[in-house]
Structures are given as C-alpha cells and as structure tokens.
Design goal:
Layout (H helix, E strand, L loop, with lengths): L9 H4 L4 E5 L2 E3 L4 E3 L1 E5 L2 E6 L9 E4 L4 E4 L1 E6 L4 E2 L2 E2 L4 H10 L2 E8 L7 H13 L5 E8 L4 H13 L4 E5 L8 H14 L2 E5 L3 H13 L6 H6 L2 H17 L4 E3 L5 H12 L4 E6 H5 L10 H6 L12 H10 L5 E3 L7 H4 L19 H11 L5 H15 L17 E11 L18 E11 L2 E5 L2 E2 L16 H4 L1 H6 L24
Helix pairs in contact: 4-5, 5-8, 8-9
The chain binds N-(aminocarbonyl)-beta-alanine and zinc ion (3 copies).
Organism: Aquatica leii
Cofactor: Zn(2+)
Enzyme class: hydrolase
C-alpha cells in the first residue's frame, strides 16, 4: 500500500520530530545490543534502556524485532539515458521504492556524454534529483572519455561538489582503453577518489555479438553467450593489474560470476587493494531466466555483466560476501518496461541492459543470506549498509546506529514474510525479476532522517525530502593501508562454506 505525498514545506514535515524506538535489538555490523533509540530533529541523540525523554515523543515498540541501519544502495541508475532509451524509475519513484524496501540512501551514477563537461552533467543530475528524492542520495560520476579537461573537472568535482567516486567502463561504446584506464585510475589516486570499474572485455563482446547474430542467434539467450564468465574475469584481472601499476585502490562494481569473484580474490592475494560489489539480482536469480520462452520475461533479466547460467552462482556469491571475498551489495537498479526491452526483439544486443532491485535488495539478501544460514545479521548490516558508508566516506553519519548518526533506521521483522510482485511493488517498472519470491524479513517501519516514512508497512514518503549528501575524498576504509589489510582473505573458520550445503554453524538466530 502506498500514500503518495507531494512536497510539503520542510517546517511542516517535522511535526513529529521526536521518536523513541523501544524494546528492540539494535544490530550494527559489529554487535547486537538490546537498547532503545531516541531520535530528535533527524539525529540519533540517545541509546540505552530507560532513557529520559521529553513528553509528546512518538514511541514505536520494536519488541521481537531488529533495529538496523537503513540500507545504503551504492548503485542505482534513475532516469538513465542508455541504449537509446531512458530508465523508467525516476528519482521520485526509485527512492520511494528504495524506502519502501528499507533503503534510506542511494548513490546514483551521473552519465556524461562523450565530450560533455562533467560539471554540467553533475548539475543536470542535481536538478533531476533534488526536488524528487525521497531519501538522501549521493552521486558517482561516469568517465566516458578521457582528456586533460576531464582530469581537471574530476578535481573540481572532488574539491567543490561532494563527489568522491568515478566509474570507468571497459565495455560499451564509451569504454576506456587500457591507457585511458591507467590515467583515470592514477587521477583517482591523486584525488583520493574511489576508482570504480565495469569489468567486461568490450572488444570480445563486440566480436562475439557479431558472430552470434550472423549465426542467427538473436534472442535474449544470446546475451550471456556474447559475454561469458571469462570475458568478465579477464577484465577484472586487467583492471586490477592496471590499478596496481598506479597504486590505486579499485572498486569493481557488479561482480556477477564465480570466475570474476575468483579473479578478484587472486588479485588481492598478490597485493592489489580491491573492493568487490555484487548485486541483489546475482544473489536472487540466475541466467536460466534469459532462456524463458516469453520475450518480456527473458529480456527483463538482461543486464551486464549477465546473470550466469551456472545455477550455483547465487549461493557462491553469497558465500563470497560471508567470507569477505566480496564486500558489499548494490541493486544496479536500471529499469526498462516491456516496450523498451522490445527495442531488442530481433537483436539481443539492442535490449536495454538493466533490472530492478532497489526495493527488494534488502529482503532478497535477508532471505538468501540470513534466512538460508549463510550470513549472520551483523554481516547483513555490513554488506547492505555499513561498508557502503565506509567506502564512500559517509560513516559514521550513515551506516550505523550510534549517537550522532542520522536517524536512518529500519525496524525489521524477521518473523514476517512477504511475497515480491510487480503488482504490489512501488517501482515504475512493469516487471519484477524476483516475482513470487517469498521473503522472510519485512521492513515494518522505515525512518528516514528521523521521519517515519514507512509506518506499519504503509509507505508515506515525501517527494524532495531527501538531501544530496557530499562524499568526501580519501575514505579511510579505502585509502588507509591498515584497513586495506582487512580486505585480505581471512580464514575465519568459514573457508569451507563453499563446500558446505548449509552453513548452519554461521547461523545466528536474530
Ligand atoms: O546492465 C546494466 N548493468 N545496466 C546499467 C549500466 C551498468 O553497466 O551499470
Ligand atoms: Zn556497469
Ligand atoms: Zn512472460
Ligand atoms: Zn550500473
């Protein structure tokens, strides 16, 4: 259910500016404690039992429930102009869906057309987002071409506009070649920015696509055939190698395959500082869906790198998250309706790439990770919120429940279930890749900057309520060598999880 609320003046939004969450269990990435949370004017002011609080404070009873930091989705594409069309979730509907699912901050990617000023593109996105975002948001920049001017603008964006991350593509028409990647990574290191990479070998993808189309393979099943696992793994390895030459920590977005995850681990073993992100889509479904006879169904599952046909992939990637071989999750929400996906009805390479996930990421990961016994609730918090806050340098303001942190909180009921469906989701898109999945774990209340935006399951967001959050350079998590050590493989006694059918020993009941 949802109640759309149009923008109201800020002073009228906070009639309820004091909130006490009582009797719940607070889950942070490092511990679970039984404490109440008192929030005033959007900020967590007190933690503990028997708090002394002003009269007139709203009280929510969280007995039997978990009180967790709001999710941070570091990877969305709202209103993204891509492959000849534009993604249908805009900053209003996308962030509303995020909040409905328990995510209280998103970080979107500013697309920069070839030759366009990065700063102009940044302002275009700020304009798109500022009046629409229902929760706080940050921005990454896409570096789609290379020049001295790009390097200068990267520096201005970092010093004056709250940007600390740049994504470079190794595929698509706007991919950078190895020399350009070298220069872009080097620029990131000088600025203390996070170098992000879409790792697929674009030249091989083009050749394979031509070959497949010539053979008459035109349907969505051709998508993965054109970009198999080793094409992803080769690019991960190459990106890691280039980054290491210029001593730049690297963030690999959307690790989609076991081969790519292994390439990342191998790079780390030889000393490369690399952070790996995977997606709700990769954890919750698989590439067999792209062979479905219905075009809408199969095309709806097309994204890049592709969902893998190896059915053991989702569980394996979840185990990689448990073992810290991968560090965090995003959604890569980039949604296209049936008619847009039909741009590729006769040619899989023209199917706009992208899937949903911003709304369901938290539930899907709880279901496939915590409920299935692979993750404990603390690790769930780390991979859905805290690590993103650390990587993009907004921790401890975001990503944890602590005095002084923003009042971004989810009251999570692990004992309730919901069934995901396009009929009930809050996204603009007409399909849901998780359709029919029953998920344990329901966000009953979602508090965004102290305001209850999901109230007993009822969505009550305010368009434009979210703020742009500046992401400062030199995140300690990325740039401190001491922290980099923590990325190295650890043998926490869980290194046999890949073989264990159900990691029961890791299960911590909430
Ligand atoms: O298929 C995808 N992933 N679409 C969004 C663009 C990107 O590469 O992240
Ligand atoms: Zn990408
Ligand atoms: Zn169908
Ligand atoms: Zn993406």
């Amino acid at each position: 259910m949802s109640t759309p609320v149009k923008k109201v003046p800020i002073h009228l939004q906070s009639a309820q500016n004091r909130l006490l969450i009582k009797n719940g269990k607070i889950v942070n990435e490092d511990e679970i404690v039984e404490e109440d949370v008192y929030i005033e004017d959007g900020v967590i002011k007190q933690l503990g039992r028997n708090l002394i609080i002003p009269g007139g404070t709203r009280v929510i009873d969280a007995r039997g429930k978990l009180v967790i930091p709001g999710g941070i989705d570091p990877h969305t594409h709202f209103e993204f102009e891509f492959m000849g069309t534009k993604s249908v979730d805009d900053f209003y509907q996308g962030t509303k869906a995020a909040v409905a699912g328990g995510t209280t901050m998103i970080i979107d990617f500013v697309f920069v057309k070839k030759g366009e000023s990065l700063i102009d593109a940044y302002y275009t996105y700020r304009q798109k987002a500022d009046d629409k975002a229902c929760c706080d948001y940050g921005l990454h920049m896409i570096v789609s071409y290379w020049s001295d001017r790009v390097r200068e603008e990267m520096s201005i964006l970092c010093s004056e506009h709250g940007i600390n991350s740049f994504k470079m593509f190794m595929a698509y028409s706007f991919m950078l070649n190895d020399s350009e990647l070298y220069k872009a990574f080097e620029a990131c290191r000088k600025l203390g920015a996070v170098a992000m990479v879409h790792a697929e070998n674009g030249s091989i993808v083009s050749q394979n696509t031509e070959r497949l189309l010539a053979k008459g393979v035109t349907g969505p099943e051709g998508h993965e055939l054109s970009r198999p696992e080793e094409v992803e793994a080769e690019a991960v390895n190459r990106a890691c190698t280039i980054a290491n030459q210029v001593d730049t920590p690297l963030y690999v977005v959307h690790v989609m395959s076991k081969s790519a995850a292994s390439a990342l681990v191998q790079a780390r073993e030889r000393g490369v500082r690399v952070i790996g992100e995977t997606l709700a889509a990769a954890l919750g479904t698989d590439g067999s869906q792209c062979k479905h006879p219905c075009f809408q169904h199969s095309a709806a599952h097309v994204l890049s790198p592709p969902l893998r046909s190896d059915p053991s992939t989702p569980r394996s990637l979840m185990i990689s998250l448990a073992q810290n071989d991968l560090q965090l999750t995003g959604s890569d929400n980039c949604t296209f309706n049936k008619t847009q996906k039909e741009l590729g009805i006769n040619d899989f390479s023209k199917i706009p790439n992208g899937v949903n996930g911003v709304e369901d990421r938290m539930s899907v990961i709880w279901e496939k990770g915590v409920h299935s016994g692979i993750l404990d609730p603390c690790r769930f918090v780390a991979i859905t919120s805290t690590t993103a806050a650390k990587v993009f340098n907004v921790y401890p303001r975001k990503g944890c429940i602590a005095v002084g942190s923003d009042g971004d909180i989810v009251i999570w009921n692990p004992n309730r279930t919901r069934v995901i469906s396009a009929k009930t989701h809050h996204q603009a898109v007409d399909f849901n890749i998780f359709e029919g999945m029953e998920c344990h774990g329901v966000p009953e209340y979602v508090v965004v900057n102290g305001r209850v935006c999901v109230d007993e399951g009822l969505v009550k967001v305010v368009e434009g309520y979210g703020n742009f959050v500046k992401t400062p350079v030199f995140p300690p998590f990325v740039y401190d060598l001491e922290n980099a050590e923590k990325l190295r493989p650890s043998n926490n006694g869980i290194d046999d999880l890949h073989q264990t059918p159900k990691g029961e020993d890791r299960k911590v009941s909430p």
